[in-house]
Amino acid sequence: MMPYTYSLFSRLYIANVRRLATNVAAKEVQDINIAPFRIVDPCPVQHDESCLNRIYTVPPDITMLLKEHMPKELWKQASVFREFGILIRKPAVELISYLEQTDFTKPINKYVLYGRVGVGKSTTLMHLIHYGLTKQFFIIYLPWVCTWFRYARDAAVSPLNPEKLDIPTYGVRWLTFFKQLNHASLSQFDLKVSKEYTWSPKEHTTAGESLSALIEFGIERTKFACGVIDALVNELKVASTAGKCKTLIVIDGFNAFTSAHTLIRDDSHIRVPPDRISITSTFFNSVNYDWCNGAAILTVDKKANKERRESDYPTYLLGKKGFEQLDPFLPICVEPYSREEFKTIIEYYKDRKWIRDISPQGEKEMEMLCARIPADIWHFTKPL
């Protein structure tokens, strides 16, 4: 029995060693076979200049958090490609570098992304939101401001400020999105409300209640959703200043707040300006210099403001009111793709089978046709 037992264990040992060696070899081959245009590390904290011009894949759980408020065409691309790939570009790497070096005991720094329509400002925001989530910031993300002012059908006089109009349905959607996006931070930090809020003679949020309870109240009581958003932003500013957390303000199309009008009508069926909408003052105040332990990253775009479309520069797009609100801020230009970035995107599209059988001459023609603008590349490659 002994020789047989020894032989059996020997064979099992040898089989396990061979299996381990095979797995290691397979892993090495897999690592070697990673496409040169990709980067393995999905952690945006590690992204620096050595990662430029390469694609990283956003983890599926983060993609699912962002999908409902991701730009429409970007979500279409992620759905078709079955992954959310982001090209690591200089503006994002530059901003990550600044955030890593920030002294958060000082009043917040403000960064304004600008550039031509379709150059990828919103995609850069996605990269930075992923960074913020990785660093356990609370993310106050307001996607494309114009959407709030364009399609609202249930605008009503605010129960808290009769001079303002609320957009309660959008308020509930945003609070639900905020809750999902910041689920991990809400669970970890368990912040408490710093003061009492009176919503009606019978409804109050008392000091000491959890921030999660405040959010749930706004979701359940649609009428007060916009008021809860205002309270939530103020509470996060207070908690950040007290050193209890860090907060990242991210607003896409900030200059929509400085437009002369919206498509929202009051009871007299007259279109009202943005400053008559309650959320305008909420998010305008969110970028004041009266708090610390955070940062604000904003974009400006021609499409966000009908009155000013002759230039892409933030000073012009923001107007006097918007500029004075943000000043001083650091402008960061998002350019069309460089030639190296264009080549990376073409290789990525080939890898995802979005482009098939395109010749080198065809790539050159595509480069000239699109002027290396990301949105145009996506649009013109659809028939291919």
> What's the shape?
globular
The helix content, as a percent range, equals 40-55%
Q: What is the mean pLDDT? A: 90
H/E element order: HEHHEHEHEHEEHHEEHHEHEHEHHH
Q: Cα-atom Rg, whole angstroms? A: 25 Å
| Number of beta-strand segments | 11
Instruction: Enumerate the strands of the largest sheet in spatial order, edge to edge or round the barrel.
Output: 4-9-10-3-11
Structural category is alpha/beta
Characterize the biggest β-sheet: 5 strands, parallel
Can you give a write-up of this model?
The chain has 384 residues and is an alpha/beta fold. The chain has helices at residues 2-32, 60-66, 72-81, 90-100, 121-134, 146-150, 168-181, 183-189, 211-220, 225-241, 278-285, 314-326, 339-351, 360-370, 374-380; strands spanning 55-58, 84-87, 109-114, 138-142, 156-157, 165-166, 197-200, 203-205, 247-251, 294-299, 330-333. A 5-stranded parallel β-sheet has the order 4-9-10-3-11, sandwiched between helices. Strands 1-2 form a two-stranded antiparallel ribbon. β7 (197-200) and β8 (203-205) form a beta hairpin. α10 (225-241) packs parallel to α11 (278-285). It is globular and about 70 Å long. It starts with a helix and ends with a helix.
